[in-house]
Amino acid sequence: MPPTVPSIDFKPFICGSASDRLRIASEIDEALSSVGFIQLHNHGIEQHKVDACFQWSQRLFALSESEKASIRPCSPSYNHGYSGVGDEKIRDCICMKESFDCGNPEDHERHNCWPTEDLLPGFRHFTEDFFQDCAYLIHQLLQCLSLALNLSSKDSFGQYHARSLFDLSLIHYPTISLPSGGLIRNPAHSDFGTLTLLFQDSVGGLEIADTSSRSSEGSAKIEEGERFIHVDPRPGTVVVNVGYLLMRWSNGRWKDTVHRVSEPPRWKEQGLQGPNCNDTVDGNSVSIEAVPERYSVAYFSAPDPATVIEALRCCCENQPPKWKPINAGEYLRKKKATIPNTDK
User: Fold this and answer.
1) Cβ density class 57-81: b for 16+ within 10 Å, e for less
2) Where is the Fe2OG dioxygenase domain (predicted)?
3) Could you tell me if residue 279 is inside a domain?
4) Domain limits for position 97
5) Do 240 and 187 touch, CB atoms closer than 8 A?
6) Mean pLDDT in each 10-residue stretch from start to end of the chain (344 residues)?
7) Helices (H), the chain
8) DSSP assigned state of 300
C-alpha cells in the first residue's frame, strides 16, 4: 500500500513532559525513516503569522515586472532576492514559478536584496521576524531528532546549525494553461540540506515519490518510473521533509524523498475544469482551461559551512557507513552552482 504523510502533533514536544518529548521524537524518527515527510500541527508558529506571510507574498508578486526586477540579486555578494518564472531550471526543465529568497538577517556575508520601504512598506520587518520564527522551529526539530538518536549535547544537530544560515523562500506559481498530458510546475528533486519547512495554500500540487517502490535511481529516473502521491494541504500544518545532507548524516536512516509540484489532483484525477485564461491560437485570443495560481512558503535549513557530514556512529551499528565524509559548505556551493539560471 502506498504510504501517506503522517500527521504529528508537535505540542507535546514543545511543552510536554520528558516522556512526551521522547514519544514525539520516536514518532518523528519513524515517519522520517519510512516516508521522509511529515505534516506537523501545533508547531508553534502562530497561524495569523503564516496567513500574513501569504498576504505579503501576494502583494510582493503583484508588483510590476520592473519593480520586481529592482530586487534581483545585483552582485555576487547579494545572492538573495527575486527570481522570475523560467530563471531556475532542473535538468533543463523550466520551473514554472517566481520566488523571493532571503537569508538570515544577522548574516553579514550573504546579503539580501529588499524592496524599498516606499515600494512595499513593512515587508522587510515582517519577513525578518518570520525568518526567525521558522529558525526557532527548525532548532526545535533538530533537538527532537537529537533526542531520537540519544545524541549528547556536544554532538546534537543544533550545535552544527549555530549560525542559522538558512533560506526563506516565498514562491508563486502563476496561473498557467493546462496542456494535454498534464503539467509539472516544479520537476522532481530532493532538497540539499538538513530539514525543509513548507507552508502550502489550499490549491495543492505537492507530490512525493512512492517510497514503497523507491529505487536508488536519481530524480529524473524516479520521475519517469515511480508513482507520485499527492500531499493534501491541511490547514494549520507545516510540511517537514529530510534533505540530502541529513539523509547522509543518518547513514540513510532518514529518507530524502524525491518530490515535485504538479497540477492539483482535483484537476488531474477528477477531470474538473479550472479557471480560464486567455491564450493566442493562430493569432486569435481564446479562452482555455487553466491551472490556478499557487502560493507556498519554503524554509531550507543547512549545517554551518565548516561542518563535516559523516555517518553518525549510532546509525552504523547494523551497517557500515555508506558514504565518505564531506564538507557541508563545499557540497552546498557545488550543488547550488549546478542550478541553471538565465541571469548567469
Assistant:
1) beebbebeeeebebbebeeeeebbb
2) 164-303
3) no
4) 7-176+186-262+294-337
5) no
6) 86 98 99 97 98 98 96 76 78 78 90 95 98 98 98 95 96 78 72 97 92 54 71 96 98 95 68 47 48 94 98 94 97 80 36
7) 11-15, 18-34, 47-61, 65-69, 123-148, 219-225, 244-249, 265-268, 328-337
8) E
pLDDT value, residue 252: 97
Residue 128 carries which side chain, given as an amino acid letter? E
Cβ 237 vs Cβ 245: under 8 Å: no
- Quick check: is 289 in a domain? no
pLDDT in tens, 183-240: 677 778 899 999 999 999 999 889 999 866 444 555 555 655 568 899 999 999 999 9
Q: Would you say residue 286 lies in a domain? A: no
CA distance 84 to 132: 25
Other CB atoms within a 10 A radius of the CB of residue 7 amount to: 12
285: helix, strand or coil? strand
Does 343 fall in a domain?
Answer: no
CB proximity list for 191: less than 8 A, separation 6 or greater:
241, 242, 243, 244, 256, 300
Residue 136, C-beta contacts closer than 8 angstroms, at least 6 positions apart: 44
pLDDT at 2: 63
For residue 272, the model assigns a pLDDT of: 46
Domain count within the chain? 1
CA-wise closest residue to 331 among 240, 241, 244, 216? 244
What is the C-alpha to C-alpha distance for residues 19 and 21, in angstroms, rounded to an integer? Answer: 5
